[in-house]
Every structure is written in structure tokens, then in C-alpha cells.
Amino acid sequence: MPKKLRRYGPPLLLISPSLILIGVFVYALIIANFRTSLTDITTAPQTTGLAPHRIVWFENYINLFKSDAFQHSLKNLILYTVTFLVGTMFLGFLWAWLLEKRDRFEGIFRTVFLFPMAVSSVAAGVIWRWLLNSNQGTRASGLNRLFQLLHLDFLQNNWWNNNSIGIMAIAMAAIWQLSGYVMALFLAGFRGIPDELREAARVDGASEWKLYRHVLFPQLSPVALSALIIIGHMSLKAFDLIVSISKPANYQTKVPAVDMYIFKSQYYYASAAAVGVILLAFVLVLIVPYLVRMTKREK
Amino acid sequence: MKRIVKVAVAAATAGCLALAGCSGNSDTPSGNDSTGQEQVEVFTWWSTGSEALGLEAMVEVFDRDHPDVNFVNGAVAGGGGSSKNLLQDRLDAGDPPDSFQAHAGLEIQDYILAGQVEDISALYDEFNLRSVFPTDLVDLLTSGGKIYSIPSNIHRANVIWASVPVLTAAGLPATAEFDSMSAFIEALEQIKTATPDAIPLSVGGVWTQVHLLEVVLIAELGPQAYNGLWDGTTDWKSGEVKAALEIFNKLMSYTNTDRDSLDWEEPSTMLIDGQAAFNIMGDWAPANFDSKNQVDGADYVYAPAPGTAGVFDFLADSFTLTTGAPHPEGAKAWLQTISSLDGQVAFNQIKGSIPARTDITPSDFSTYQQTAISSFKNDTIVPSLQHGAAATIVQLNTITQAVSKFTSGASDIETFQAELAQAMA
Prior knowledge:
The structure holds two protein chains of two kinds.
Chain A: H1 2-37, H2 44-47, H3 59-66, H4 68-99, H5 106-118, H6 121-131, H7 142-149, H8 167-191, H9 195-203, H10 208-216, H11 221-236, H12 240-245, H13 256-265, H14 269-298
Chain B: H1 2-22, E1 38-43, H2 49-65, E2 69-73, H3 79-92, E3 99-103, H4 106-113, H5 121-126, H6 135-140, E4 142-143, E5 146-147, E6 149-156, E7 159-163, H7 164-169, H8 181-194, E8 199-202, H9 206-231, H10 239-252, H11 265-272, E9 276-280, H12 285-291, E10 300-304, E11 311-320, H13 328-339, H14 341-351, E12 354-355, H15 367-378, E13 380-383, H16 393-407, H17 413-424
Parallel strand pairs in B: 1-2, 1-3, 8-9, 11-13
Antiparallel strand pairs in B: 3-11, 4-5, 6-11, 6-12, 7-9, 7-10
């Protein structure tokens, strides 16, 4: 027994504060949130416990999925996520590939591409709101004005004010923000490949393209998967950038996270909690297979 | 030896985390501050511009009348929306400010029903307020015979502002007075054809569009039927409402395309910059004109919104005493100042609204305010939708969503009307 204590005691003691804090502030709250989502708390007195509430099970979820407004939000979320993922993966990979050559200016470029991530989403949002101004013609500003100056007037559009695909304009800003991060991940991936492999391939007479195609790229797939998971879950939770470019009340750019905010502000705690659970479920769908894969590999 | 170090590090880390976990409460005001002075924390969304200056003027009066109470400004930026969310969080967490700003009307009813504000009827007797406020207004602050807040100021929402230079350039007379929405639309059409670069009617984000819708509903339905929209006696699905929505749609076609990214100041400033001709906004707009040295009558003109002469679409700010307020005495002192004649005059002279008290001298106020004071006395009073007087937060949010969907082009008039009816059902 003392031997066991000696072996497991210190590590347990070390992690116990974080275990307790995470247990209370993450898992207990997730359970509390799930419980709220099963109630009918939709009025001010119910939120303070002055009026009774009852359990309505999955009614909130059913109502959400049936409502046109929430379907619109989900559609926006899918569009946003797909655009964001494809954009960051493509640009991030491209930049990493270019920098992988150990150029003299690599340090500078790496910083340049990574820098947008250091800018806060709200500050970036204010600038992008100006860039994505929907005015055209004589009152145009931002990107629309740039198109005019370049005599590319036909490219002018109303950006995020388009009801069906406007959310993709905001995904553009998100791509700008996080492509550098994906680049850094891929760059680390490239650097992790031992030089011997390249040399071996060259000795075997592989051309430069074949070297990349058959030797280097396949080794990057774990990195690509990590990047996909990280960017994917960030995208599902997107709120700050959307709200600072558009406004929570704007129909064009509604996503579930914005719905959650609005529900909460009108005392619909149950619906807000339900949206939270739905978002968590989406993130789990992404992350759980990844975690399972990781643990399998470690074994 | 190594093991001891390990244990020590673990214990130290645990200690640090425990401390960090417990220290979260240290920044909340607890009892009296270190000097032993009484204090009061007042939560408002008056954090910038004329609103903040008005609050400062009120605090000056407060410091003079209650030198023993320390004023703590809990103003939070972000207009009504995000600051109300923050307030809600604080109330839920049992960390209320001593007093907070709330719109008179159905908006405050949520706080009353949630048991988050105290009955302060007794203060009305103590400060002799029963006779100084209009009874209609006090009714909106009352629930079950008890009064829950004290009004500080009244705004008028149905005002139209116009830029004189832009009107002149389009060959229109320098007036903002229109008998009806159709006469107004003719003027908008003329601006559009005569000066294609000018925006006939400037508008901002969704809330300003709801504001515009409310004014159109008053103009087209008349005050009585408009009031009926909120108590259920006017049918939202009626042909009259549909006609009003068509007018609203027509008006929106004369507005700026970047509206959804703006608040109210930018559209108002478009008049000052000569970019737009008309703007329908509440009477907090003069502060914006003043701050840019615009002259009433020469640079800008105003009138009751088209078709709403003789109607005063009102909203009022009021202050509460929160349940479980850490400093109830300080809050009482604050409520005394905001209800006093001196406090209301000092505040409203700067904020641009009119005092809720009726025993004021109109000549102490600006030209615009004098017109508002006399209108408030003589006109038919109707409650504002956008500003919390006519509808609950849920109803307003639902209407706001329907408006956003419609003005962004995602729904047609029939769907729009059905969604509005649904919101009030």
C-alpha cells in the first residue's frame, strides 16, 4: 500500500487541482447545461427559480431542428466550415511547401503569414467589416473600391449581405487569420521528416516531384488530420469574428453560436442550452474518432 | 530527496490553483469601501457621447446632494443589446449593481417577474413623486399596484431629421414636414432622380430598421390601431398592416446598401456629411448634430415623422433598486438625485431628452426640447416597440429577426407579415 501510494501519490496530487477544476468547470457544467436543455425554461421568472419549470425532454431539440431559422443557421455553419477548411488547408499547405525549401527569407515569411493569428478577432473583424463593405458604385469602399481602381468592377458584390452564401465572405477573413497557423503545422511536419529519406529517394533516382508525391506528402497526413480537427472545431464555435464583422441580429450571417447568444438574451435558456449541446455534439463527431485513432497508435 | 521535491511542487501547485480559484470574488464591491464611505454602483449603457456627459452632469448633482456617498460608474459600452446581456448575467450570478437603467414598459416587467428589482413605492411617498410624473408613465413601471422604478428621462422616437443642403440640391423646400408617408415617398423619389449620388433615406442596422417599421406602423394605422397591435385588438394579419408593410418595403428601397453593418450614428452623420437627405431616428440625434457644430434650422431641420404629427412615440429610461443590492442606502440616495428636479434638469439638458418630471421650466431647454416638452403634454402618447415600452424582450427579438430576414431579402411580404403575427401571438 505505501509503495502504491509512493508511486501514484505525487502524480495524483499534482494533477488533482486541474482534475477538480476541469471536473467542476467543464464536465459538471456540461451536464448542468444538458439538463437545462431538457427543461422548458423560457421566461424570466423561470430563470431565477421563481416560477417552476418542468422537463420536456427533447422538445427543444425537435423545435430547433424544425425551425426554418435554425436550419438557415446550420446551412450557414456548413458553408462557413467547408470554406474555412478548404481555404486554410490549401493556403497553409501551399505556403509550407514553398517555405520548406529553406529560403533565406523563410524567417520573415513565416512571421508575415503567422502574424494575422496574433491579431484579436474583434480587431480583425472591425477592419474586415470595412473591407467587406457592401456599397457599390460611387459609395464603394474597401474591397469593392479596390476592384473599381483595378477596373474589375464586375467583381463588386455585397459580400456578407448575400443571404445564401454571404457567410463565405466572413470565412475569407477567418482564412486570412488562420492559414498561417496551418502553415506552421505543415512546416513542422516537413521538418520532422528525416533527411535520410530524401537522400535515399534521390539515390534511387526519384525526381523532385516524385520525391514529394511518394515520400514526403504521405508522411504529412497525421499533420493534415490534426490541422483539420483543430480548424474544424474552431469553425464550429465561430462567433467573435462573425459578430464583429456583422451583427448578432443580422439574418444573413446567423450561425448556431449566434442563435445561442440571442436565445440566452431573451430568457430562452433551454433553447440556448440545446444549441450548446448540439454544437458540442458536432465537435465530438469530429474529435472522438481522432482521439480513438491517437490512442490506438500510442498502444 | 527527489521524491520530496516532487511532493512539494505538487502541493505548491495545488495551493496556487486553489488560491486562483477562490480569488475571483475580490473585485466585487463588498460593503463599504476602504475609507468607510457609503457607495452606490449604477449600471447604465451610457458610456459614450452625450449620454455619458449627461450622466456626468447627474453625478455632479449627486455628489453635491450626497457628499457622503461615493458614486461608482458601472456604465458598459455596447448600446442596449450586449450591456443588457451582461446585466442579466450579473443578476443571475447574484452580483447585482445597486441600481440599473431599464426602459419603462414591458421590458422592465421581465425583471419584476424574475424578482430582480424591489418595490420602491415607498420612495415615491418619501420623495413626493406621486404628483410630479405623468400617470401613464408611472403605470408602465407598475406591476400589481407596486412601483418598481423611477423614470429619469423621456425620448421621442418618431422624429424625422433632414439635411438642408441635400434638400436644396435636389430642389426641395427645406422642410421635414410631411402629412403622409406617400407625400414623403414622393420627396424621396425626387431626391433619387435629381441627385443620384445622395441617399434619400439613411438607415442603420436591424434595430434602426425596426425603429423605422414602428414609425411606419404608427403613421399608417394611427395611434389607436397601433396600440391595438400590442394588446391584441388589432389584427397583425389585416390588410391595413400589410399596406403598412408595403410602405415600409418601399422606404427600405431608398436606403443605403451598407445599412446592416451600421449603428444609428453613421446614418445620422450621413446627413451632416451631405450624403443623405432624411433619417428617421429618436431625439437622441440632436446630440450628434451638436457635436459636429450643425445649426438647428440652417443645417438640419426636423419634424414629427411623416404622418405621425400629433402622436408622441415615447420611450423612457428609469432606475431601479435591485434585490439584494449591496448598498441599498446608496441606491436610495441615487434614486433621490435622479428623481429630483435639479438632477433631471442637469441630466436632460445635456442628454437631449426631456425630463420625466412635469414641473420643469421649458425655457431651460433647447429649441428642439421645447417642442418635445409641449408635444408630450398635448399629443397622443404611444409606446415604442424597439425601445422596450410596447413589447417584451422575446417579442421584440422575434420581430427583429423577422425584420432582418425581410430587409436582407430572405422573405417576402406575406412571410414577413405571418412572422410578425407569429411573434405577437
